[in-house]
Amino acid sequence: MLELIEEHPCHGGVQRTYRHESHAIGLPMRFSIFLPPQAASIRVPALFYLAGLTCSEETFPIKAGAQRYAAEHGIALVSPDTSPRGTDTPGEKEAWDFGVGAGFYVDATRQPWVSHYRMYSYITKDLHQSVLDHLPIDERRLGIFGHSMGGHGALVLAFRNPDIYRSVSAFAPIAAPSLCPWGVKAFSGYLGEDRGQWKQYDATELVKTGAAAPFDGRILIDQGMNDKFLAEQLYPDVLEASAREAGLTLTVRRHEGYDHGYFFISSFIADHLAHHARHLLLK
Fold first, then answer.
1. Active site residues
2. Which among 72, 53, 49, 44 is positioned nearest to 61, based on CA atoms?
3. What is the pTM (predicted TM-score) of this model?
């Protein structure tokens, strides 16, 4: 069941926050959803948005300005939290880029994280099923996108689950997490030192295996060129090179002067909603 936490009228629709039980996490989780006005009478397509480090289910609906465009297209927007909360796992609050607010959309296999830090299964199973069971969402028309850590998550979840997601895009994704400090820290902590296990959560590695092939020509990535994390953490060039070698077509748009934050995201959010609408509004 869903517990309604708050609700606000928005662009003819409604912005809500819910709490629900998660089997994967073992604790209650929160997510936000914008239901466009069309959802009052029909089941609508939905876009799942995965946020970045330190964010929560509130970040995207408050900062991105996406509801206006979602209302125009008739698409719901679902934004989960970025990690479990209140697990009392030792060390989960010691760093801003690991633990609370930094679940990295993986299923941990290493102690003590394995008990609760299972965001991959949470998004693809618990959240997915709760949204479909209790809200007016069309299960045949789902897409996924995200920012930074969430851009990494969106690419990985889409590539590994083309039966669930019809469309994918990302803002400044961590495109090759096995190579960058954020990714190495998260993967080592949650998954251990066997880098072979990391590949299943690395978009660049998944491209190499052909897992991204169902999205050929339908992947949109936007990157700000004044992003302070670009050189050390994001590696879009590595993803592009792997795509070329795999014969995969993707679109990476580079924007001079833009940084890593939500002013950047809000500047191009309309393009991402239009990108997804082209695929999700098809019957």
1. 148, 227, 260
2. 49
3. 0.98
